[in-house]
Amino acid sequence: MQILWVTPFNTRSAIGTYSREVCEELVSRGHDVRIMRVESGAEARWPAISTSIQILGPDDAIPADIDLVIINYGNHAPYHAGTLRIAAERPAIAVFHDAEMRHFEGGMQDRHQALMPTVMGEDGLQNAAPSELDIVDPGARPILAALAAMASGAIVHGPHYQPTVAAACPGPVEVLPLCFPDIGTTQTKHECTSTRRVVIFGIISPYKQPDRLLRAVSDLQAEFGAIEVHLAGSIEAHYRSELTNIAADLGVAEPIFHGYLSDQDLSAVLTRADAICCLRHPVTEGGSASLITAMYQGRPLIVSNVASYSMAPDELIHKISYGEEVSDLASALRRIFLDPAHSDKMALQARDWARITYSSATYVDRLEILIARVMDILPVVQALRQLTSHAISPDGRAMPSALFAMAQATEELFKPRQYQYHDLADYRGQQGS
Q1: Which intervals hold domain Glycosyl transferase family (predicted)?
Q2: Which of 63, 148, 289, 334 could form a disulfide with 168 if both were Cys (CB 3.0 to 4.6 A apart)?
């Protein structure tokens, strides 16, 4: 199959790293894949990730021989500015890496003076949650709905925004755990010391709740003595000062700020940790590369029990409430500190599970099934695009009555049969039955 994979692809982009893993796996299975970069401005000139796959520029035309386009969306306009041009031209599979896309919308307006399309009837999406499992901010639903409505199918990397996307997308929507490569574990072995170490890594912001960790450490200090809090990643100066002041007020040691680290240096910090925290509040992303990276390190892990974090087995990681509660975080740390042998065993089992679950092979196994399902309905979606382009009044405005009539007729004639597929062979067998 001829696939155009639309993505940011500079060396600083985690979505670019994910894209290389998936595209190279697709190529290994016989697909012809071309990558199209979609960054704008200076970001479009940043060095590309190394790959043998052909890379097209953000302004290049869509090749005429493409069978399917797959577009990656993220909440950063400079990285994803070119996606709208492609989505307007081709009904693609949309991969949503974020559940919050308002920064993308705002960036497109500020940087490119481009207004986002809207979906008729979107007020209902904004004012009512499609599902109690959906935690997308109501104000963020219209932008997700608009992008999903332009797609022929969609991928989300967690269950927490699937209902919003599925409510608008005309094709199948699947929850696929994100795939991400192992940054490589250093040869440094964890050594037990009298001083415990707890690490939060990535871009250090209030969303990752380092203040919650400092308060938990304060509650445990009398029982366990000094506990080091390591913050490995870039942090704004004002927030660094804020955390330093919080630590002083609580009577705990100032956090150890590592700043941005190379993969090797980050792995060394994580390997020495007695516990790693991947906390989020609120959750704005889809899947979590941080979660996957932490699990690869084989160290005890504490997560908020929400979104993609909740998809990992309970017996492999320590899950706490999604919120600001301190006592359950302190309890999880206490269990790890009191029984390090059991916690280490859990962590090693989690690493083995992650290496399979988050591999590109596992991801593409499921992606190929979705591609096959989308190809079934793609001719209908393409035909509808052509028809609806004529459902306009003489002054150029859309005619809702005509559009709704087309949608209703299409739903009755072409609504896909409901299948449960276990693998691609099972899909093909059911399609032939």
Answers
A1: 197-352
A2: 148
Positions of CATH 3.40.50.2000 in the chain: 196-358
Query: In 76-126, which ranges are E strands?
Result: 93-96
Q: Which CATH superfamily is domain 196-358 in?
A: Glycogen Phosphorylase B; (3.40.50.2000)
Q: List Cβ neighbours of 320 (8 Å cut-off, separation of 6 or more).
A: 279, 302, 303, 304, 305, 328, 329, 331, 332
**HEC profile of 135-158:** CCCHHHHHHHHHHHHCCCEEEECC
* Planar angle of CA 137, 142, 146, nearest 5 degrees: 140
Average per-residue pLDDT for the chain? 91
Please report the pLDDT score of residue 421 as a whole number: 47
* The predicted structure's pLDDT at residue 118: 81
Q: H or E stretch including 198?
A: strand 196-201
pLDDT band at 433 (very low <50, low <70, confident <90, very high): very low
Which among 33, 31, 30 is positioned nearest to 20, based on CA atoms? Answer: 33
**Cα–Cα distance between 340 and 174 in angstroms, integer?**
37
From CA 292, how far away is CA 181, in angstroms rounded? 8
Cβ partners under 8 Å of residue 86, min gap 6? 6, 36, 38, 62, 69, 71, 92
- How does pLDDT run across 145-158, given as a tens digit for each residue? 999 999 999 999 99
Question: Of 188, 147, 196, 182, which Cα lies nearest the Cα of 167?
Answer: 147
Question: Which helix (H) or strand (E) element contains residue 228?
Answer: strand 227-232
CA-nearest of 151, 196, 199, 198 to 173 is 151
Residue 405: predicted pLDDT: 77
pLDDT at 384: 80
Residue 411, Ramachandran bin (φ over 0: left; ψ between -120 and 50: alpha; else beta): alpha
Decide: 168 and 119 in contact? Cβ < 8 Å.
Answer: yes
What sign results for the dihedral spanned by CA atoms 181, 184, 189, 194? negative
Per-residue model confidence as pLDDT tens digits over 245-266 = 999 999 999 999 999 999 999 9
Three-state DSSP class for 389? Answer: coil
Q: Considering only the top CATH level, what class is 2-179+361-391?
A: alpha beta
